[in-house]
Inverse folding.
């Protein structure tokens, strides 16, 4: 499974699939957890299984579990915080037009 995790992190961060390692993946996530949040939010928003705040947060937890030790506590907290901001924007009713 580590290979699949690394390929996904490489895709999110625009890194080479051939050169990605656990250390490079951790460094990318540590350096820019908001990029991870944006990618995971886009995945969640596109998923037919995500229909509410609860299911979106469940999706995020599942992704954190999948990524495992590639995401340290600090990066996880920052990723979750940004994901929640994007989620609230997504859940907000559209502004009235006209």
């Amino acid at each position: 499974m580590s290979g699949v995790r690394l390929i996904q992190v490489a895709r999110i961060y625009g890194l080479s699939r051939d050169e990605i390692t656990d250390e490079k993946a951790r460094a990318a996530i540590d350096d820019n957890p908001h990029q991870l949040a944006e990618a995971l939010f886009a995945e969640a928003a596109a998923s037919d299984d995500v229909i509410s705040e609860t299911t979106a947060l469940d999706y995020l937890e599942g992704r954190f579990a999948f990524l495992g030790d590639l995401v340290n506590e600090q990066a996880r907290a920052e990723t979750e915080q940004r994901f929640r901001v994007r989620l609230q924007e997504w859940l907000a009713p559209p502004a009235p037009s006209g």
Notes: Residues 40 and 63 are 8 Å apart (CA to CA). DSSP finds five helices and no strands in the chain. Helices lie at 2-13, 22-31, 33-46, 53-67, 73-91.
